[in-house]
Design brief:
InterPro entries: Endoribo_LPSP/chorism_mut-like, RutC-like_sf
Number of helices: 2
Strand order of the largest sheet: 1-2
Protein name: RidA family protein
CATH superfamily: RutC-like
Distance between the termini: 17 Å
Number of strands: 4
CATH architecture: 2-Layer Sandwich
Organism: Cupriavidus campinensis
Largest sheet: 2 strands, antiparallel
């Protein structure tokens, strides 16, 4: 599922900039929430997560302060969820990209 944001119900959690108003730990939790949301949407659409045969690649975009350079540690939250929920099927390659603005 493309373009997930850290929404729980109707609330977007942790709005801000990692390295300024959001800590690394909070940013990891946003990656976890976004990934769980994607998995929930897949399950809703397919009826089960067993339909997932592979997760070849993920891209994690992190709204970051100019001096924040550990976007990969934010992306660890998403990777950990995929492996925890899907096991070997959830192993993937990834890109973690710092951006100044997200929609």
């Amino acid at each position: 599922m493309a373009r997930q944001i850290p929404r729980v119900g109707n609330v977007v959690c942790f709005v801000g900039i990692v390295g300024e108003s959001i800590s690394l730990d909070e940013a990891r939790r946003t990656a976890v929430a976004s990934t769980l949301r994607a998995l929930a949407l897949i399950k809703k659409s397919c009826g089960t997560l067993d339909a997932i045969q592979a997760v070849p690649r993920i891209n994690v975009f992190v709204r970051s302060a100019p001096d924040f350079t550990i976007q990969s540690e934010v992306a660890d939250g998403a990777s950990d969820v995929l492996y925890s929920v899907l096991g070997e099927v959830g192993i993937h390659t990834r890109s973690s990209i710092g951006v100044l603005q997200l929609p």
